């Protein structure tokens, strides 16, 4: 279940009627502690620099709309960042950039009669990025064309997923990093079939292909062969020797120095840092170090309220809205009651709306 520290929920006899049982304890909105020895931390502070405040006040045009820049984004997470999660995330933060789960290009192409289930989202979820995966240029092109009608603000290609199903049997995800020429071609195909910006999410390497020079070669070739100007960098390499996706988020060490070196060596490109950053304090620390943007993953699901509640005020400089967890639940209840069973066959059901 998506976590709102301090409250427990049950569903009553009426559809998706969330009842607050009791307030268990008073918690701070932000958990600033970290015991991960793999992180090389510098002094952390919530205060933004003058340059960051300048960036905050600069709106960018994406998909015909103007939004604040993606200083903070929520990572695409399979089976987690579906439209229901994104709805409650958007209730909490109005300015964080949200990513879909990765959708295989083949799924989009072969589900043309059922696209709303996979691609539709409420307009309130903007700014939102569609992440697709695949290794067939024709299907990638068709999937991009089909997605255009839904009005995403950016399309991102997954070159970072290490799961056996994706990078192994599927031969895409992080395995694509071993073929930067193909990735450049795929990004050109995506860009040719959409009017919105395109981006790549990748790791810093794969197995023994983990030198900084090899990462630079990947970035250079993709950006030279395509209009790609934005890369989301998960600052760990991927191991494709059978370890689980969870272990791939834990065992390979974080190498933030690779990310910051990319900022120096590719000044005309935009890079978002991902991996091991768990709270707003750490987000602002990365921004002060020069990061163009920061992507937060599991923390934004496992600790939804404490991770997102202060993004708008602490990262974007927007006055606090006075939102409370109770108000979030009340608004999400309205959404839940409205969407229950709309896909037929009792889908989505209550379990899907409060899964976790």
Question: Describe it for me?
Answer:
The protein has 356 residues and is an alpha/beta fold. The protein is 36% helix and 15% strand. The chain has 16 helices and twelve strands. It has helices spanning 50-56, 83-92, 105-110, 115-119, 137-148, 164-169, 180-192, 212-225, 245-248, 256-265, 280-288, 299-302, 304-308, 311-315, 325-339, 350-353, and strands at 9-11, 18-20, 60-62, 65-67, 72-74, 97-104, 128-133, 154-159, 198-203, 230-234, 270-274, 293-296. The strands form three sheets. An eight-stranded parallel beta barrel has the order 5-6-7-8-9-10-11-12, surrounded by five helices. A two-stranded antiparallel sheet has the order 1-2. The chain has a two-stranded antiparallel sheet with strand order 3-4. The longest helix has 15 residues, at 325-339. The N and C termini lie close together (3 Å).
Topology:
Elements: E1 9-11, E2 18-20, H1 50-56, E3 60-62, E4 65-67, E5 72-74, H2 83-92, E6 97-104, H3 105-110, H4 115-119, E7 128-133, H5 137-148, E8 154-159, H6 164-169, H7 180-192, E9 198-203, H8 212-225, E10 230-234, H9 245-248, H10 256-265, E11 270-274, H11 280-288, E12 293-296, H12 299-302, H13 304-308, H14 311-315, H15 325-339, H16 350-353
Parallel strand pairs: 5-6, 5-12, 6-7, 7-8, 8-9, 9-10, 10-11, 11-12
Antiparallel strand pairs: 1-2, 3-4
């Amino acid at each position: 279940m998506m976590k709102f520290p301090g409250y427990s929920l049950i569903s009553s006899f009426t559809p998706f009627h969330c009842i607050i049982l009791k307030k268990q304890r008073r918690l701070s909105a932000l958990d600033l502690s970290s015991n991960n020895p793999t992180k090389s931390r510098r002094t952390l502070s919530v205060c933004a620099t003058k340059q960051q405040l300048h960036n905050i006040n600069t709106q960018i045009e994406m998909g015909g709309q103007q939004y604040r820049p993606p200083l903070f984004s929520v990572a695409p997470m399979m089976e987690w960042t579906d439209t229901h999660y994104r709805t409650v995330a958007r209730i909490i933060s109005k300015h964080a950039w949200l990513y879909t789960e990765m959708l295989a290009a083949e799924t989009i192409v072969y589900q043309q009669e059922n696209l709303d289930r996979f691609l539709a989202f409420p307009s309130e979820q903007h700014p939102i990025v569609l992440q697709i995966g695949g290794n067939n240029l024709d299907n990638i092109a068709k999937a991009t064309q089909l997605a255009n009608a839904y009005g995403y603000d950016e399309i991102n290609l997954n070159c970072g997923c290490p799961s056996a199903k994706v990078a192994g049997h599927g031969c895409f995800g992080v395995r694509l990093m071993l073929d930067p020429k193909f990735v450049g071609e795929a990004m050109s195909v995506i860009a040719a079939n959409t009017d919105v910006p395109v981006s790549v999410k990748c790791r810093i390497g794969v197995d023994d292909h983990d030198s900084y020079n090899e990462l630079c070669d990947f970035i250079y070739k993709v950006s030279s062969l395509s209009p790609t100007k934005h890369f989301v960098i998960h600052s760990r390499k991927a191991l494709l020797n059978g370890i689980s996706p969870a272990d791939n988020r834990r065992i390979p060490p974080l190498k933030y120095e690779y990310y910051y070196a990319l900022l120096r060596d590719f000044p005309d490109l935009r890079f978002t840092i991902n991996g091991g950053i768990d709270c707003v304090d750490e987000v602002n620390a990365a921004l002060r170090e020069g990061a163009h943007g920061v992507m937060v993953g599991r923390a934004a699901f496992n600790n939804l309220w404490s991770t997102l509640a202060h993004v708008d005020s602490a990262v974007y400089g927007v006055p606090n809205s006075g939102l409370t967890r109770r108000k979030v639940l009340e608004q999400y209840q309205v959404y839940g009651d409205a969407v229950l069973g709309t896909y037929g066959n009792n889908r989505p059901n209550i379990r899907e709306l409060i899964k976790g």
